[in-house]
Structures are given as structure tokens and as C-alpha cells.
Amino acid sequence: MKVKTLIAATSAAGLLSLTGCASIVGDKEQSVTIDSTPSNADVVIMDERSSEVFEGETPTTVTLKKSDGSYFGGKDYSVTVSKEGYKSRTVAISSTPNGWYVGGNLLFGGLIGWLIVDPLTGAMYSLSPDEISADLGDSVAKAEDGSQALNVALVQDVPQEVRSDMKLVGQL
């Protein structure tokens, strides 16, 4: 009976040595949450090859691949959040080796996990940031032809209830 237990334990240890720590505890994909002020803004996500991988509206949660499928091929993304009448924002999402890949393989996975298994599965990466909250700022006035417009008025011509929303832009 002890021989069977020893064989089972040795087999299990052998199988574990053929895996990587990040591949055991990690995923090939990661969720990224995207929100904006104001809400219902358009979201376009492009990958490092300038291929569109997602198009939608905020708020949303998108599942993105962490690897491009090549050896040591982490994915990077560009997220653009825009809404008509507001400034658009672009945020970069990058992949970096995670703690399970760095520390876990140092302690448990060894060279096979570090150099073969984890780099091929993509589980070795984490995407950062995993939450994006884009503030698109104040609404930008537009003229009829689509260009930005600036309206100038004398203070005495502005209704009293609107004056609290005014902003000083300079003095003569």
C-alpha cells in the first residue's frame, strides 16, 4: 500500500513540475470595467495591432485576452471613450508579468513553468488598469457646422439664475 501511495505522490509531483504557477492559478483572459462621466459614452478598444476588439457604451465590463498567443506575447490595448459634445479620452491598457509568474515559479514551477508553460498560455500576465473611469469634462459648445463655438455676452445680459454657472476666463 505504501508503494502505491509513493507512486501516486511522485506522479502528482511530476505533473506539477510540468506546469507553471501562473497557469495553475491564473486565467488567459481578464475583465476590465469601463465607466465614464457622463455615462452612455462610446467605447472603442483597439489592440496592439490596431484591430478593433470591442465597441460599445459605458458603463460596461469587457473580457480581454492577456496574451497574443505567441511566445512571451502579452497584449496591449488602447481604450477610447468619447461622447458628442465632450472631449474624448484615451487610456492605454498594458500587460505585465504577474506575481504568480514571478514568485510562484521561483518557489514551485521552476524553469519549465517560467520558460515554457506560462509564456505560452498567457496566464503569466495581468492587464493594468483593470478599471477605467473616464471623466470627459464639461460639454463643449458646437456651432451648426460642427466646429467649436464660443458665446460672448455681457454679464448684465445673462439671467440671474444662470450666473452661478458662469466661469471667469480672463479680464481686460
Q: Would you kindly provide a written description of the structure presented here, covering whatever features stand out?
A:
This protein has 172 residues and is an alpha+beta fold. The protein has helices spanning 2-17, 21-25, 99-121; strands spanning 29-37, 42-47, 52-57, 60-65, 77-82, 89-97, 125-128, 131-135. Strand 5 and strand 6 form a beta hairpin. It is elongated, with a radius of gyration of 26 Å. Mean pLDDT is 74; it is low at 8-25.
Number of helices: 3
Number of strands: 8
Specify the biggest β-sheet: 5 strands, antiparallel
Main β-sheet, spatial strand arrangement: 3-2-5-6-7
- Please write the string of helix (H) and strand (E) elements: HHEEEEEEHEE
List the helices and strands and how they pair.
Elements: H1 2-17, H2 21-25, E1 29-37, E2 42-47, E3 52-57, E4 60-65, E5 77-82, E6 89-97, H3 99-121, E7 125-128, E8 131-135
Parallel strand pairs: 1-8
Antiparallel strand pairs: 1-4, 2-3, 2-5, 5-6, 6-7
Name the features.
8 strands; 172 residues; elongated; three-stranded mixed sheet; alpha+beta; 30% strand; five-stranded antiparallel sheet
Quick rundown:
The protein contains three helices and eight strands, in the order ααββββββαββ. It has helices at residues 2-17, 21-25, 99-121, and strands at residues 29-37, 42-47, 52-57, 60-65, 77-82, 89-97, 125-128, 131-135.
